[in-house]
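Ticket #4471: structure export looks truncated?
Reporter: QA, pipeline team
Priority: medium

Steps to reproduce: submit the single chain below to the structure queue and open the exported record.
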Amino acid sequence: MKTAIIGCGAIANTHIDVIKHLGLNLVAICDLSEDKASALLGKHGVTATIYTDYEKMLDEAKPDVVHICTPHWEHAKMSIAALERNINVLCEKPVCISPEQYAAIKAAEKHSAAVMGVCFQNRYLETNEKLRALAAEEGAKGIFAAVPWSRDENYYLSTDWRGRKATEGGGVMMNQAIHTLDLALWMLGNPVAVTGTVTNNHLVGTIDEEDTAELYIEFESGAKANFYATTAAVSDTPVIISLTTKSDRYTAFGNKVFDRAGDTVVVNEKTDIIAKDYWGNGHLHLVRDFYDCLKSGRKFPIGVSEAYRAVSVILALYRSCGKRVELDLSKL
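Actual output as written to the record:
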């Protein structure tokens, strides 16, 4: 299959390494900066035609699949452009940043012969697969999750889109913690209400969105989730997910899952060749599955509607301000 990439920022390094590892045919890459695109190819020792106009690339290179690795606000328009040309899309999270963008993507997808998948790669780690299986087998009562990370002023000032709600869609929840939120939804099922708060504790004047969030999620099954996320921590600490079932409590920390007694239940053996630790080391397995689905006709499990569930919860959190916001995701 012919493959292309739009966006040559940090996450594109992971995608290009996976493409190499899987032996896919990278035919084109696109970035507003030709020098940036050229440097990315040189760094990874690959060749491809460079474009600075993504629509021109889609028209001329005619890839079978395009990987979208651009700032959040651009995901929707670029996905739609590809779908309208019947080009399959693998998009980085979030799938979009507003209900209007979601509706536009769904409309394009409905009339396209192509399919779209979204990168929630942490679902492919054995630790998280085990937690989900335990939730189903033993009956989930709830989850506590924490994302205690550190992002300083330089992180936000290094780009012109981070730290701005108009282009990022939100702060720590929309950018960093959305992966862990997706896991909670994947494990516990359909959310019906959200109550929470967001604050900016350490970067007032630098960003116009939250650096810290806490939320309480109620699920159709009766399960609950308590969730905390911050980029104001002193240093990065591994994500914590603690699942309480009707039989035990299981905690995922680092590459292991422990039960209440402290015994190891599973160790993640799916190490990647590539990604930064906090990206979850699951891209290789997700991308492989996406291409396998295209070849076999099997439905990719993280489509547009599935990926938008996490965005819906985050947008409800932003509306909450401490008040309970009911959700109806049945029509996504």
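Status: closed, not a bug. The export was complete when the record was re-opened. Leaving a note from the reviewer for reference: The chain has two domains: 2-121, 123-262+303-326.
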